[in-house]
Amino acid sequence: MATKIQMPKMSDTMTEGVIASWLKKVGDTIKAGDVIAEIETDKATMEYEEVISGVILYQVPEKSTVIVDGLIAIVGKQGEDYSALLNENQTISTNKNPVETTSITTPKEEVKVQTPVANTANIKAKIIQMPKMSDTMTEGVVAVWHKKIGDSVKNNELLLEIETDKATMEFESYEKGTLLYIAGEKGSSIKVDDLLCVIGEPDADYKALVEAFKNGNKTNDVQPIVENTNVVQNVATQNNVAPTTQDNGRLKISPLAKKLAEEKGINLNTLQGTGEGGRVVKRDIDNYVPVVAAKTTAPTPATNTSTFGQENFEEVAISQMRKTIAKRLAESKFTAPHFYLTMEIRMDNAMAAREQMNAIATSKISFNDMVVKATAMALRQHPAVNSSWLGDKIRINHHVHIGVAVAVEDGLLVPVIRFADQKSLSQISAETKDLAGKAKSKKLQPADWAGNTFSISNLGMFGIDEFTAIINPPDACIMAIGAIKQTAVVENGHLVVGNIMKVTLSCDHRVVDGASGAAFLKTFKDLLEAPVRMLV
């Protein structure tokens, strides 16, 4: 008798999984204990062992996203009719959600592609929807179309760039056809899952597809067609780009890099690749510096550009990142009752210890690295501060993941140093530099900014003495770090010059009480004033 195989719940927070790869195919015979698939969860990619024996009669496509307990395969006897089980699953899906879509998840982002509706099934064109490219993305802005209506689209060709709340991402199409319709020109804002474009045969009646989509007619009586599309970040990633070089001596270059080189008139033979196996990728084009002959130009006469007496202003469109920052911080400020604790810390010993450590350290240690380490060790002793408000309960985290705020062109990103309490100062230093560099070059991956249990915002390097920071959800606290300043301090009844740093802890009063926050700051202060304690 045919039996359904359902998506297993492989972690406590898992609500859906992605079929990363099938290790057994339709028609294969399996027995109990065989590993038949690799499933990507919210935590990791894990192997799935089947508990029944038989022949695989049906599978959902690889890269499909399936909710926990949803159908992923059917096992039975060779030639057995399994249509009743498949129809049963489709009926359940229709009752739960009248909009039937097939989700395809790459290792980075999820792309949802509309399946053809019943009365348009014969139209040889496909609707492409705005993909969700980050965990917090609700809409995307068309940064630039690299194809125009009527252009041919090939596999691996760059279709457009989409500005998300985190970065500008590239959308590469792996579907051949003609670009028949686009839903928005440059600067247009499109919500996740809304119509992005239509690709198909040149004479296809795409208008019927668009009309059906806009009318909400997105169901289908036939087997869903899985689109082979992909989303890549705004850097060349070798895993998502098909190789262009075999062993025939041709230049190894990604399609995007080749296109950009041709547009800029760069001789391909002068390029040096930094990608895998010497492959030329986008960053090689961006960093290309041609050798040009020097030339002298005559000075241009000065022009009087005075605008005395004129009012002048400029209005700038809000980026997706800035919109998300505004929304999340406003929610935090007006839903979490903030209170603030400020403390002065004597940094003389920390400065001396840093100088000694940097004489032998493999990665130069900054004061911020020492702050991260001291914070992590203090959180280990005060878990109430390392907590989150979840509405009807408080989550006390027993792991320490420190979010470190990094200023970027369009706003602020908070990459995460994981298990910071277990890492050395040199490890924290190297990881912080790496994440900060990725943030500023828009190379951070979603996993890099997720999972923080506490956050730090440091403006000391800008000469700011003291400030307060808004809590970064879901954390219960954030600590604002000021500059180290020389000032007069009393020591053994005498005035001496001391180096003082002010820190301010912002606390969510629903989670952290004043006494808990003060005790945490006392431990943090003790660690920085006697930094040798961080090394044992």
Please provide the count of β strands: 29
Q: How many domain regions?
A: 4
Spatial gap, N to C terminus:
63 Å
Strand content bin: 25-35%
User: Count of helices?
Assistant: 9
What is the CATH top level name of the largest domain?
Alpha Beta
Mean pLDDT, as a whole number? 80
Largest sheet composition: 6 strands, mixed
The CATH architecture of the largest domain: 2-Layer Sandwich
- Briefly note the CATH topology name of the largest domain: Chloramphenicol Acetyltransferase
Estimate the global geometry from the Cα principal axes: globular
Instruction: Bin the helical content.
Output: 10-25%
CATH superfamily caption of the largest domain: Chloramphenicol acetyltransferase-like domain
Give the helix/strand class: alpha+beta
Low-pLDDT residue spans? 91-118, 219-248, 292-298
Could you give the order of strands across the largest sheet?
20-29-28-27-23-26
Report the C-alpha radius of gyration, rounded: 28 Å
